[in-house]
Amino acid sequence: MRDNSFGEDKDEIRELVKQFQNLRSGRANSFLEEDSFEKIVDYYDDLEDIPQALEAVEMGIGQYPYSATLNIKKADLLIATRRYHDALEVLNHAELLDSNDINLYILKTDVYLALDQQEKAVALLENALSLFDGQERIEMLFELADVYDDYEEFDKIFDCLKLILEQDPTNEEALYKICFWTDFTGRNEESIRLHQQIIEDYPYSELAWFNLGAAFQGLKLYEKSIDAYKYAVAIDEKFDYAFRNMGDAYIRLRKYKDAIEALERVLELSRPEDVIYEAIGHCYDRLKNYAQARFYYRKASHLNQEDSKLYFKIACTYMNEGQWNTATKQLQTALQIHRLQPEYNLAMGECKMQMGEFKEAIQFFSTVVAQRPKNISSWEALIRCLYIGEYYEEAVEQVDAAIRHTDNKPIFTFYLSAIYFAMGRSKEGLLQLENGMNKAPKLLKKLVDLNPSILQHHQVVDLVAKYKRNRAI
After folding, report:
1. Which range of residues forms the domain containing residue 423?
2. How far is it, in rounded angstroms, from Cα 265 to Cα 247?
3. How many domains in the chain?
4. What is the pTM of this model?
């Protein structure tokens, strides 16, 4: 029956077009009803033959001057040809004929936006809301939300979507959109109340459960968000985004095994994504299962070969296992993509230092210092490398530079003390140690980490003991 019906529709429009052509050529006995002109206009519009469509609508208005529908169609065609002021004039005329056609307001909105008159678009739609109810009011609210988006009134977008859901709680488009705008505007508490009400009336709405979970997640209430996501996947076991968010929530709670289980379900349900593989790798990394972490980081890097961070993460797993040489190969790849990235240079410097290649290590640490001259840990890494490599003179110079660049941070006073002791300049070492103890005694552990044997030096022990006695008094 559908084929016959389609055939009859084609026959009908073919006959109407033929009659239209007879009418425009002035042949006798040609007459078209108002709705026939509407179909002819739509036919040419679908063919993107705007000139013919305009000619048809002009002829139709000539015969039916009080037709609001034909005037609105004419305005639509004028908008398509960017004749916005002409379109607005036609729409104003159509409004006099019938002010209850929703297309009138939607097209006027398009004109105002095209003319960069967002305020008029907003005022028009806000006033028109009271004229419509049911599905037409919902359509108007969606239109208003789009205008607010263009106008960057983001909280009002949320308000429109909330009104839609209060009228139609299962509207999928609104449910999808309000999840994004809840996160964007931070109106999580309102979203929780709204979706709890929807769930009370429609307990099998997986989107409402998902949005509830997302709102809880936005407030960092991860346990509650997971419970909501579990309801969502119980209703729809193929709801991959619920598993994705659930995995993120488990990671926030440091429940890495549960996160892996949720994220693996995402891989089963959707196309592979580098971010999911990376997240699973992160979980194994946190569980200190470095081989599995590498496996997933590599899967991620195969999908996104330009993401230098993934090669860096693979390198870190090798570093955690003390496989310094293997780590450098991954870091070389990362550095080929982002040569000056401080974290990569810092890691490469650490690997080279652990391998005894101090000169190369110093170069990498120096690159980090150049990139982050005020960063304390960057200077620490360079000075520690110089100390371990026994480049004491240069270490003293870099300590002076570090003190200048970091506003005289006391950590470097302790490092200077260690260097002086290593150089056999015990008197100066003790003087710097005393200065450091006066400024920040808790940083003594940094000196001990650098040189544990320092506590075997009786003058150091006496100085620390003296300081502790004075503090006790």
Report:
1. 410-473
2. 10
3. 2
4. 0.80
